[in-house]
Each structure stands twice: as C-alpha cells, then as structure tokens.
Amino acid sequence: MQLYTFRSEAGNKISKYHSILASYSKVLRTEEPTNIGFIHIEKGGVVGYHQAPVPQLFIVVNGEGWVEGEDEQRVYLKSGDGVFWNKGEGHRSGSEKGLTALVLQSEELQAPS
C-alpha cells in the first residue's frame, strides 16, 4: 500500500498568469496525453487569465469560488459544480473563501453529455 497526499501544501505553486495563492497537485498521467490533478485556490487566490492548452474539465470538490470566460462574466461555483473549457478558450478562476478543484486535461477530452 502506498499513501499519498493531494493537499495544497504538497502541491506546486502556480506562478504563471499573474496567479496568486494557488497551487497544483497532479494525481496521475496516463500513456495518452491526459493529466488529472487538483488545483487548490486559497482564500483570496486567483489563477490568472490564460488559454486552455488542451480541453479541460474543472470540478469543484471542496469550497466555493468563481470562473470567468472570454466574456469576463463571473460564474459562481460550489462543491459538485464543474466547468469545461475547449482548447484555446480563455478563462480565469478564483475564490474568496478557498476551493479545491479536480482538473482533467487531455487532447482527447470531450465535454460531458
């Protein structure tokens, strides 16, 4: 048995895109170009505006926060809510109270039905 932690303190700080108080904890990588990981956004944190390098599914698993797309309209999310971005789609995310999101990224990823 191997134990792992995916808590924010075990993650890597997100320093790109003018991000603030945010970290990323990768869960695994498959043979196909697929990444599954957690993004931890601390209280008052932001993952700055950027274009999705591949299709992405962002699912809030703890806490609450917001996302903005290219239209800059803020949408609030809480645990159990998710958002899908297509490759190249601009977006940013943040939280006033803190959140953890499970993130799936892959060239082959398609929006849930």
UniProtKB/TrEMBL annotation:
<dbReference type="InterPro" id="IPR014710">
    <property type="entry name" value="RmlC-like_jellyroll"/>
</dbReference>
<dbReference type="InterPro" id="IPR011051">
    <property type="entry name" value="RmlC_Cupin_sf"/>
</dbReference>
<dbReference type="Pfam" id="PF07883">
    <property type="entry name" value="Cupin_2"/>
</dbReference>
<feature type="domain" description="Cupin type-2">
    <location>
        <begin position="38"/>
        <end position="94"/>
    </location>
</feature>
<protein>
    <submittedName>
        <fullName>Cupin domain-containing protein</fullName>
    </submittedName>
</protein>
<dbReference type="InterPro" id="IPR013096">
    <property type="entry name" value="Cupin_2"/>
</dbReference>
